[in-house]
Design brief:
Elements: E1 6-10, H1 18-31, E2 36-39, H2 43-48, E3 51-54, H3 83-93, E4 98-103, H4 105-116, E5 121-125, H5 141-162, E6 165-170, H6 177-186, E7 190-192, H7 200-212, E8 218-223, E9 235-240, E10 246-248, H8 251-263, E11 267-271, H9 283-301, E12 307-312, E13 315-320, H10 321-324, H11 333-341
Parallel strand pairs: 1-2, 1-4, 4-5, 5-12, 6-8, 6-11, 7-8
Antiparallel strand pairs: 2-3, 9-10, 12-13
The chain binds 6-O-phosphono-beta-D-fructofuranose.
6-O-phosphono-beta-D-fructofuranose binds next to loops.
Length: 344
């Protein structure tokens, strides 16, 4: 069947690189004389039939802009009764022959299910967390790593002046990718990630040994999803989002308090939070997002639905959506072993 109109949506947490992807999809589709409809606020926009026409003007100047011009939400079309039917009905009422869903595990998980129900969908992976399977990198990650690295560099100078321990809490959900890359790039003295339960005795020993060798300041990088051995995950709230995700945050303060008390060294805590998700994408993320967007349109034109674009090495490939979702991509332990060489 010839594709006469494509829809595009961005779902889940925003990240730098979404706008370059939207721009690439629109520019490539228009080159093929296929109009594009933007769906506002992820799956919510499809449920509510909230759309916007995307033309050359609407994507002009958005390449360096963070966030998403389409807006986003964490609405799950499978959660509320009746939403699934509305999603399907509106897709055909809007005369969308194909849909490109740009999202992380939750948005693409829904896309994968909808594809199995007969909808013509292609996925584009995005997340600062870099925790999506079947792709080496997602856009947004490189930008977040650069922001976190700059923050660690800045914490270094003040830590050194005041002879303090600086604990920095970094996003990434249940995977320690941002923390590991930023920790390596920023020269963290200890790196605590969700993949390895934290032993506070070990952490205190490393810091004490470091101070004994004359270094009277330390940088402790902790991923928000890191967990102390034999203790519960630290959460911001008991509430969960529509996809059942917990809201992480607070482990930095737990670690900072305990470290300060047990080592006797003055300690301060910085939580980087959403700063890691905002602002302009790096050149790497702009290029990756652009390549993903163009390939997503090509998949639509070739009728390769149920696929997600992905990066393997330096090649843009496509993988089944089903294979990409549901399995967390955790940190490569070979990388963590390298970071460990610099502990203490
Ligand atoms: O998935 C991206 C992410 O920024 C995570 O790193 C973080 O745990 C979460 O989203 C924060 O979610 P929210 O934007 O709902 O506070």
């Amino acid at each position: 069947m010839a594709i006469k109109r494509i829809g595009v949506l961005t779902g889940g947490g925003d990240c730098p690189g979404l706008n370059p992807t939207i721009r690439a999809i629109v520019r490539k589709a228009l080159k093929e004389n296929i109009p594009v409809t933007g769906i506002r606020n992820g799956w919510k926009g499809l449920i509510e039939k909230d759309t916007v026409r995307l033309d050359l003007n609407s994507v002009s100047g958005i390449l360096p802009k963070g966030g998403t011009i389409l807006g986003t939400s964490r609405t799950n079309p499978y959660k509320e009764k009746g939403d699934l039917e509305k999603t399907k009905k509106n897709l055909s009422a809007l005369k969308l022959d194909a849909l490109i869903a740009i999202g992380g595990d939750d948005t693409l998980g829904a896309a994968s299910k909808l594809f199995k129900e007969g909808l013509k969908i292609v996925g584009v992976p995005k997340t600062i967390d870099n925790d999506l399977s079947c792709t080496d990198f997602t856009f947004g990650f490189d930008t977040a790593v650069n922001i976190a690295t700059e923050a660690i560099d800045r914490l270094h100078t003040t830590a050194e002046s005041h002879h303090r321990i600086m604990v920095v809490e970094i996003m990434g959900r249940h995977a320690g990718w941002i923390a590991t890359y930023a920790g390596l790039a920023g020269g963290a003295d200890i790196l605590l990630i969700p993949e390895i339960p934290i032993d506070m005795n070990e952490v205190c020993d490393i810091i004490k040994t470091r101070h004994e060798r004359g270094k009277d300041f330390s940088i402790v990088v902790v991923a928000e999803g890191a967990k102390l051995k034999d203790r519960e995950l630290v959460l911001k709230t008991e509430k969960k989002d529509a996809f059942g995700n917990v809201l992480l945050g607070g482990i930095g303060h737990t670690i900072g308090k305990e470290l300060g008390e047990r080592t006797g060294f003055e300690t301060r805590v910085t939580v980087l939070g959403h700063i890691q998700r905002g602002g302009t994408p790096t050149a790497f993320d702009r290029v990756l997002a652009t390549r993903f967007g163009v390939r997503a349109v090509e998949l639509v034109l070739n009728g390769e639905f149920g696929q997600m674009v992905a990066l393997k090495g330096n090649e843009i490939v496509s993988v089944p959506l089903e294979a990409a979702v549901g399995t967390l991509k955790t940190v490569d332990m070979r990388l963590y072993e390298i970071a460990k060489i610099f502990f203490g």
